[in-house]
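Hi there,

I know you've been waiting on this one. I reran it after we fixed the sequence typo, so this is the corrected version. Both the input and the resulting structure follow.
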Amino acid sequence: MVDFIPPAKPIIGEEERAAVDRVLQTGMIAQGPEVKAFEEEFAAALTAGRTAVAVNSGTSGLHLALLAAGIGVGDEVIVPAFTFAATGNSVALTGATPVFVDIELDTYNLDPARIEAAITPKTKAIMPVHLYGHPANMPAILAIAEKHGLQVFEDAAQAHGATLNGQQVGTFGTWGVFSLYPTKNMTSGEGGMVTVEDAEVARRLRLLRNQGMEVQYQNELVGFNNRMTDIHAAIGRVQLTKVADWTKQRQTNAAALNAGLRDVKTPVVAEGAEHVYHQYTVQLPEALVAQRTELLARLKDEFQVGTGVYYPVPTNELPSFNVEADLPNTKIAAASVFSLPVHPSLTSGDLERIIAAVNTVVEEA
């Protein structure tokens, strides 16, 4: 019996465990010096030195950053529907309305050509997602935003280190948010990081994450308890030293999959883009879309290859939103894509087995 190849595999080693133990020995467990150091190191490594504000999850980061940028009741924010629900949820939690726009079917990112038709007098911002680790078309989105006087926010939850024309994601808009969930390209156990251009937005973020306080018991506004602990920051600081090498391995693994897979559409990389392959997502040919569930079950049961489907239900169609929208590419992607293992722990033998399994299952379907 061959070992199961999981679709994702967090890498936690002795250095991470030692970092946690070091913090526990200090007795300073809540937000403290480790968080401050992590913020500074993250900003320097991944967002060209922008101000970084650590929070307890990527979703918290999106929510607080929207509030800090002035988004609230009566506003509209343009978002893709083909992504995790946290993107739309974070807008709704501010009291604003997410307006769902279709994607490009090559990169699975927000389609700039569909944005202007969705702009209304209530529109305040555009929030693309750098989905699967591929940067969205930021030059086109920024041009539309400038034309209409809108802010641009970046959901970079899956895109640590991705670049477009040499510029790191999380540095194009008013702010960018990265997730540090265990299955992301790097983790802090749980957590998020907001990277901010404007000092006042950064200050409001710090207030919002800490009950509205910068000075204890001097609450300036109504805030939340969304702080990151020093335990989580210590893990994140170690992971930050490793993520560049892990990204190179993901890219090497993706290249091997690209070279070997047949009869499925492999990931497209736009000109000038650096894809960091949080997910390696392929698309079935139209004739096999109805068989996706059975094909993935066969990959697991017969070949011990794990897969994931991200995202089978467009956000606008979830019961939590239930909004009608004309999103043909979103529907196609939701019905036809699946993601294969690409994580840094894969061996050359694993990659060969994944390629052989997918080719066999698709060709025999």
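Quick highlight: The longest helix spans residues 243-260.

Best,
R. S.
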